Amino acid sequence: MNKPFKVLCIDGGGIKGLYSAELLAKFEQVFGHCVSDCFDMLCGTSTGGIIALAASLKIPMSDVVKFYQEHGPAIFSERTKHKPGGSAYLLLKQIAFGGKYSATPLRSALEGVFKDKKIADSNNFLCIPAYNTLTANPRIFKKDYDNFTEDDRKSYVDVALATSAAPTYLPVMEIEGDQFADGGLWANNPILVALTEYLYKFSQDSRFDGLEILSISSCQKSKGEKHHKLNRAFSDWKNTLFDAYSIGQSKSTMFFLSKLRGCLNFPFEFHRIENIHLSPEQDNIIDMDNASEESMKLLLKIADNTAMNEKMRPEIAHYFKTTKTLNPQNY
């Protein structure tokens, strides 16, 4: 009997990737399998791309949790925020002086984890979205297979920096003369990327009996807003601008997928894990670049409570109790 092609998709969301990593760490602990062994393809955007890349090297998700805890405050300049006028200084930088944060702490942290690993070292097929600012085209970094021979030579560090280069937050990443911004510009929830890749390459493979996708949110906040003035500058929008496009994109994607179920010529199942509902007080603490101790403790607790519920669902346990079909090295 043929097996389904299994994909894990992980949303973008800055430091909220701590929630996603903790959720997956709990699943690894409960079900006794590492993420890499359970999914044929790993697909992640921005912070979700960093988690997917780590998983493809069989790095335990508990170590990824420690990565966020140890390096998040430096990446998002928490020390500067707590100085008098520090938050205003960072906002001014974001608006007019080259972006809110330096890439140096993130690069240093990624180099400590990924070292000199290349995409060729991946144990899974990959889809890591970015956006090519020179060609104005979406770009998906992949593990090479068949006639696709573009990315195996690229470093994990460079690809991680490219997918997470959020405009005005972190610098654009240059790789081999091309310049890349955050994949969240077009695929913050990359589940359609995964479906398209399956249709493009794997749907005709006789070894697979359909497609199964598990999608992980990055601790989505409750929206929308109270009434605001109609004419808003960037300083009025601030982080809510990025929440608006990422949440809107994600919701439209999930609606589209719900209409596809039962309409394709192969078995197709997908499940989305959303975090437990946040209170207004929690909404005010959690943000994509709030790496304070209070925020990170809350993200961990929300992940633990979400995992407590989700691990009991048979449809979720299925993803972690069954192993992948293919190793890309043998494809």
Give a quick precis of the structure.
With 331 residues, the chain is of the alpha/beta class.
Describe the structure in your own words.
- This is Patatin-like phospholipase.
- The chain is an alpha/beta fold.
- The protein has a single domain, classed as 3-Layer(aba) Sandwich (Cytosolic phospholipase A2 catalytic domain), CATH 3.40.1090.
- It has helices at residues 17-31, 35-38, 47-56, 61-75, 78-81, 86-96, 104-114, 156-163, 184-187, 191-202, 234-237, 239-260, 280-285, 293-310, 314-321; strands spanning 3-10, 41-44, 125-132, 137-141, 173-175, 178-182, 208-216, 268-273.
- Helix 1 (17-31) packs parallel to helix 14 (293-310).
- The chain is globular, with a radius of gyration of 19 Å.
- The mean pLDDT is 91.
Name of the CATH superfamily: Cytosolic phospholipase A2 catalytic domain
Span from first to last CA? Answer: 19 Å
Helix content: 40-55%
Any idea of the CATH class? Alpha Beta
Total domain count? 1
Structural class: alpha/beta
β content, as a range? 5-15%
- Rg over CA atoms, rounded to whole Å, is 19 Å
CATH topology-level fold name: Cytosolic phospholipase A2 catalytic domain
List the total number of helices: 15
* Global geometry: globular
As residue ranges, the low-confidence spans are none
The major beta sheet can be summarized as: 8 strands, mixed
Average pLDDT number: 91
**H-E order:** EHHEHHHHHEEHEEHHEHHEHHH
Named at the architecture level, the CATH assignment is 3-Layer(aba) Sandwich
By DSSP, the count of extended strands is 8
